[in-house]
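Student: I would love a firmer grasp of how sequence relates to backbone shape in proteins. Thank you; the sequence and its tokens follow:
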Amino acid sequence: MLNQIGVTGAVEMNVATSVVAGLAALAGAGSAHAYFIGSDDTSKIYEEVLDLDPLTGLLSKEGLERKLAKIVQADPPETSGFERWLLISLEIDALRDINEIHGAEIGDSVLRVIAQRVRRLVGDLGPVSRIAGSEYAFAVKFKRDDRELHAVMNAIIDEVARPVSIDSATVAVFCTAGVTQIVSQTIEINKLLRQTKLARANAKAGGLGNWATYHPEMTQSDRYRKWIETELVQAIRDNDFDLVYQSQVYSDTGKIAGYESLLRWKHPTKGIIPPIEFIAVAEQCGLINQIGNWVIRRVCEDAHFFDPDVKIAVNVSPKQLDNPEFVDTLASILKTYDIKPKRIEIEITENVLIGDPNRVRKQFERIRGLGCSIAIDDFGTGYSNLSTLSELSFCKLKLDRSFLARYEDRNNSGPLISTVVNLARALDVQILAEGVETKDQIAMLNAAGCTLMQGFAFGKPFTLNRDEVSEEAAA
């Protein structure tokens, strides 16, 4: 049970029950009508707080700090027993895109709607604030049983992520959240928020709509990210990257349909650093375009060593695609290396579809107009909208390896894979299964109608020995 601090008399309320009841009330109302309205005393407290965020009416960061100080003085963490105060921050992703697409007024309205949702879900259970931009923070007292925390966090993220309708605009909203425990009577709000930010960064690595709890090791992770950023600058200068290639094969004939180029960073002291550890950092610090252009140039160099009838796939970050100069740069590189555009396939992860659909569609059309094909990578990870897919000009869906692994052991795995294959056929595009490693997987995919595959079952990624290939060609 929870004891609400700062109200005349104690109000006991179970957190999970409160939030679930609030969600039910919201669903029943079908709109953002108020629920969990605070008592008169609570309202007075909010009215008396001087440190308010002028846009949303929530507490500001300073107001949150003072409120938390009063809370922990009245209920010190050391005496909480089976309960604990947690600070939770959540951030709305892509606010800049919302402002660019719909305008700053709509963006501000979205921030106010989210503020209402968070405040009404939390209700009297703790203080709620808008820190800055699209970041919100609130404190709630939980039992030490993590099941309650999981239930509440999932409910909050689901509620916040509902599309926001303002005037004639419907805005898709995605968020990530971080949680940290308040362990001291001395409130250092910047330190606590920094911990929740590290937790959010860790959650975001797993995709949008996730949340994570802070632990001290994340501080080391943050230092590692900063080290990666510094070393990437040197890696670009010293040309410390290389490519390996993995074949894409028709399982029924054994014929090679193409190759996917995979980036590797050869650090002089740390060895191979995989893309999963540095691509996100490169996106955040603005180095992704330099690295991405290097990859395209190297693929075009290597294309002369491959059969001219096969395609070579190049992974392109959504951040690269968002660059208005991307297509012109691609065309220039193809011309410089005398590579026919039809030999290059641009692979773009499925999460590009959460951006501005019109902008994505126009970029796709420009790429296709150039003559390159497009594959939607990591399909099945949860972002696609069928109507959006049907409006895009692309040539291939790449079924994510996690989708295959998720359904392999289920009795209904065949029909599920068949459904995706039929979707690809309806869209008049190819489908390729990634991460195929076993004969059973090959058989399941074949039975479902998918014969184009990629994975260790058909060979590991290989390094192109350019010197040997050049000598053979000369001979």
About this structure: Residues 1-14, 20-38, 470-475 have pLDDT under 50 and may be disordered.
